[in-house]
Amino acid sequence: MIDITEIRKLSVDERLEMVEAIWDSIAEDTTPSDLKISTKEKEEVLRRYEEYKSGEQSTYSWEDVVMYAKEP
Q1: Would you kindly state where each structural domain of the chain is located, as residue ranges?
Q2: Which CA distances in Å does 12 have to 3, 8, 16, 19, 24?
Q3: What band does 44 get if pLDDT is binned at 50, 70 and 90?
Q4: b/e map of 3-29 (b: 16 or more CB within 10 Å)?
Q5: The whole model's pTM is what?
Q6: Alpha carbon distance 47, 56 (integer Å)
Q7: What average pLDDT does the structure give for the chain?
Q8: Which of 13, 29, 57, 59 lies 20 to 30 Å from 45, alpha-carbon distance?
Q9: What distance separates the 2 farthest-apart alpha carbons in the chain?
C-alpha cells in the first residue's frame, strides 16, 4: 500500500500530476464492460432524461455554468 505521508512530501503540483497520471491510467485500462451501471442507476438516468424532454427540468447553458463558476 502507498504511504500517504510519502505522498504529502510532494509539492501540490507534483501531487496534481500524480492524480492526472492515475486518472489517465484508469482511462487506458478501462473497458466498456467495466463501465456497466446498475438497473437502478439506468432507471434514474432515464427518469431524468424524460423530465428534461418534457420540460419539467430546467437546464443551464455552458456560458451560464462558466459564469457561475467564476463568481466569488
Answers
A1: 1-35, 37-72
A2: 16, 8, 6, 10, 18
A3: very high
A4: eeeeeeeeeeeeeeeeeeeeeeeeeee
A5: 0.48
A6: 11
A7: 93
A8: 29
A9: 52
